[in-house]
Design a protein that fits this description.
Blueprint: H1 2-7, H2 16-19, E1 23-25, E2 30-32, H3 35-39, H4 52-57, H5 60-69, H6 72-82, E3 88-89, E4 96-97, H7 113-135, H8 141-147, H9 155-158, H10 168-175, H11 187-194, H12 201-205, H13 207-218, H14 224-247
Antiparallel strand pairs: 1-2, 3-4
Helix pairs in contact: 5-6
């Protein structure tokens, strides 16, 4: 490839895809350089329509909603990761990979208690990392630290976990101002959103509808006693209408068979 490029004197003869590649590999794995061009290329994996959840997230409307909350590049990466089963782009380092890629080091030495404990911790960390790759697309523990550095006390308690497995203290940390570090890529918001199975879009995009439903339940519209009262009122109205229909024989019938 290098000899081919060197043999071309005029750069205009070089294909645009080679002059500005959307994915590059400098020896440490492929990295996405241009996210939008990557999504429009054949390198990107297609939406996994065979999976119902991926098919739901794969709609363009979901991408538009994500762009309302996250910076465009981060939103496109999140949308890609949510709608594909076997392909991920790390939002921190832009690495293109498959979930489950090995990253753990091999342990050597005798099976002393210390080494056994290390192996147990390594298996737990491997399980958490695999979960995190599926949840957010973050490829490694180092990248997770870069994403969550604004919430130092919640790093270990949120790694590889969904909302139902996170403590209230950790959620308070994520919902707070954090350490105050600048976050132009919106990675802190992405961290919080990916803890939710629906990315929290229901709360962020439809807060009014959710609040109306909660008010309806609190006002007792679904109370059994109220339902029974409405049934009694309905029966009385039907009885009154039947009496009027019987007494007013000269009136023109509303329905004739």
């Amino acid at each position: 490839m290098q000899q081919y490029l060197a043999s071309i004197k005029d750069t205009e003869d070089i294909p645009l895809s080679l002059r500005n590649p959307c994915v590059e590999d400098f020896g440490d794995g492929p990295r996405v350089r241009d996210v939008q061009a990557f999504l429009n290329s054949k390198i990107a994996a297609p939406v996994s329509f065979e999976d119902p959840l991926c098919a739901e997230f794969g709609q363009r409307e979901v991408l538009e909603m994500l762009c309302c909350v996250l910076p465009e590049e981060t939103a496109m990466i999140a949308w890609y990761n949510l709608s594909r089963i076997k392909s991920r782009v790390c939002p921190a380092c832009k690495r293109l990979y498959h979930p489950g890629d090995p990253v753990l080091e091999e342990f050597q030495g005798e099976d002393s208690p210390t080494n056994v404990e290390k192996q147990k911790q390594a298996r737990e960390d491997s399980w958490k990392l695999h979960n995190e790759q599926l949840i957010s697309g973050i490829c490694s523990a180092l990248c997770y630290f870069l994403v969550a550095h604004n919430y130092p006390s919640a790093i270990r308690s949120t790694f590889g976990r969904r909302a139902e497995d996170i403590s209230d203290e950790a959620w308070n940390e994520l919902n707070g101002p954090g350490a105050g570090a600048e976050d132009k890529m919106g990675l802190g918001m992405l961290l919080k959103m990916t803890r939710c199975h629906d990315m929290g879009l229901e709360q962020l995009i439809l807060p009014g509808l959710r609040a109306a439903d909660e008010r309806s339940e609190s006002d007792g519209y679904y109370d059994d006693d109220n339902d029974e009262g409405s049934d009694v009122e309905l029966e009385e109205e039907l009885e009154n209408s039947e009496i009027e229909e019987i007494t007013d024989l000269d009136a023109e019938p509303i329905y004739t068979p």
